[in-house]
Amino acid sequence: MIRQILVVENGLGLHARAAAKLVHLASRFQSEVRLAREGRAETMDAKNILGILMLAAGRGTRLMVSINGPDEVEAGEAILQLFAGRFGEDF
Fold it and tell me: How many separate domains does the chain show?
């Protein structure tokens, strides 16, 4: 199992378009991918757009991502790159 903290750095946070990109990416992997706001026990399935939007993760929000499965390393790297690239947004 991989666990890491990711910071939402894009200007609009995990809005609908960014959430859709995350769901699309997470769905490419067999591993289970879960997200939670740092310090909270409730986790959301990263393959479910409504769950991602319910996190209400604005800019600066720290999220704990947990990945468990046969391709967890690849999934973790891809998700880290998506967050580091600010979901392809320039602001």
Answer: 1
pTM for the full predicted model = 0.93
Confidence of residue 89 (pLDDT cuts 50, 70, 90): confident
Name 34's bridge partners: 45, 66
**Structure-token pair, residue 57:** 């993760």
Catalytic residue among 15, 21, 37, 86: 15
Q: Is position 24 annotated as part of the catalytic site?
A: no
Report the candidate in 25, 2, 90, 10 with the shortest Cα–Cα distance to residue 57: 10
CA torsion angle for 80, 6, 15, 22 (degrees, to 10)? Answer: 30
